């Protein structure tokens, strides 16, 4: 299009929009708008309260869950023995019942915690290890799953099927 046509079209659009609406039309629009129900709109205050509430809940969850964490106890380093003499096993120390004060101190502190295993579970695990030592597990080597591995398929023999002729006299 030429520039003259565009400016002429632009001028016509501006003249069409420059018309004021009739008073009846304005009155009808105002009545329709007054009858419309108000829409609920969340303001920035409600949004801020929601975000603050979610933040408080998240902080509380993290705080409560971090108080009950079980921290693993670092393993004690045992130096290998250099002598070949037999060493007598040392029995574990007697188990002391923790007092309420000691338990409270252990759960809140950042120190190590002792995990006690019941005697029945220790005995069951010992029996399991003995049974495993006496009857070792047997296993089959897994198949070769390389793409270029040859498959071993046993020979298949199909015996011939014998069909006897139909006797016409027997029918």
Outline:
The protein has 171 residues and is mainly α.
Give the SSE layout.
Blueprint: H1 3-17, H2 23-35, H3 44-67, H4 100-108, H5 119-134
DSSP E strands, number: 0
Structural class: mainly alpha
Q: What pattern of helices and strands is seen along the backbone?
A: HHHHH
Q: What are the segments in which pLDDT stays under 50 over at least 5 consecutive residues?
A: none
The number of helices is: 5
Largest sheet: none
Distance between the termini: 99 Å
Oligomer type: single chain
Radius of gyration: 45 Å
Outline: flat
- Compute the average pLDDT: 75
Helical content band: 40-55%
Structural write-up:
This protein has 171 residues and is an all-alpha fold. It has a domain at 1-37. The protein has 5 helices and no strands. It has helices spanning 3-17, 23-35, 44-67, 100-108, 119-134. The longest helix is centred in the first third of the chain and has 24 residues, at 44-67. The chain is flat. The termini are far apart.
Key terms:
171 residues, mainly alpha, 5 helices, flat
